[in-house]
Specification:
- 55% of the residues lie in helices and 13% in strands.
- It has nine helices and five strands, in the order H-H-H-E-E-H-H-E-H-E-E-H-H-H.
- Among the domains are: 55 residues, no CATH class; 57 residues, Winged helix-like DNA-binding domain superfamily/Winged helix DNA-binding domain (Arc Repressor Mutant, subunit A, Orthogonal Bundle), CATH 1.10.10.
- The chain has 274 residues and is of the alpha+beta class.
Length: 274
């Protein structure tokens, strides 16, 4: 935690080390060095671009959204040298919950935001897309959140709203126990991480929607098949077949789709007492 050794800032490592480590390669990639005479600021920009190319490959290689988000917050702590903790918080059902966190400190801060509705994440979703504070203890707002953060030693906070095309998804928040920890350069780096997190969350939600639609289609197809079996076997019409499935679902306290699947696999159920 506060006294634990921190990983080296990724900007302190040679370019080849950054790319090779993040990509998991056995040998460093060949890195094109900037030409002689390049302005130092431009050279730093080229180096940062190389870092984020490696970050993108690393995140793209994660097999699940959860692992992607957890890797993302780990990399945020490593690459933003003043960041000591980071978390991705998602908006669900009018509240917020932790999706990825580098420590229990972040989870506690997410929990207080979800319970009270105050803090950079709820406010960011409602109003301002980015919050940056140099000293949370000196701020006049969010009393419950501020008290909890102070108890945990958090002084500086940098929080970015995460977007899909039409809605806020949550937030990426960076934390430090030092005041005035995040400058404009850290803001720019954090914004790039926030863009990666937005893509990961939006992709996950699209996948969830697709799975829900597939389940609905499969369920309707099964119900239709079961109705056809009942109609052919019992010589009843469509309304009667559906009514029979619905009655079985109600009396057995089971989902209609489960009752239909049983009819498809086992045939017409025996009459009660038969």
């Amino acid at each position: 935690m506060a006294g634990a050794p921190r990983p080296p800032a990724r900007h302190d490592l040679p370019r080849t080390d950054v790319v090779a480590e993040l990509a998991g390669a056995e040998e460093p990639f060949e890195v094109v060095e900037p030409p002689e005479g390049v302005d130092p600021a431009e050279e730093a920009g080229i180096a940062l671009a190389a870092d984020f190319a490696a970050v993108a490959r690393d995140l793209h290689g994660q097999p699940t959204t959860d692992l992607t988000l957890h890797r993302l917050v780990e990399l945020a702590v490593e690459m933003v040298e003043t960041c000591e903790d980071a978390g991705v918080t998602v908006a669900r059902g009018g509240s917020v919950t932790s999706a990825a966190a580098t420590s229990s400190v972040v989870e506690e801060l997410d929990a207080i935001q979800g319970a009270t509705g105050e803090g950079p994440v709820p406010d960011g979703l409602r109003r301002v897309p980015v919050y940056r504070t140099d000293d949370l203890a000196a701020e006049p707002w969010w009393p419950a959140y501020r008290e909890q953060a102070g108890r945990l030693g958090i002084r500086s906070v940098l929080s970015f709203r995460l977007y899909s095309e039409d809605a806020g998804l949550g937030a990426l928040t960076l934390y430090s126990r030092q005041p005035a920890a995040f400058d404009d350069g850290h803001f720019a780096t954090g914004a790039i991480f926030a863009a990666h997190a937005s893509v990961a969350l939006a992709t996950a939600r699209e996948a969830d929607t697709a799975r829900t639609l597939r389940r609905a289609v499969d369920s309707n197809r099964t119900i239709g098949m079961a109705m056809g079996i009942l109609m052919a076997t019992l010589r009843i019409d469509e309304d009667a077949a559906f009514g029979m499935l619905r009655e079985l679902s109600s009396t057995q306290n089971r989902k209609l789709s489960d009752v239909a699947a049983e009819v498809v696999s086992k045939g017409v159920p025996a009459a009660p007492g038969g």
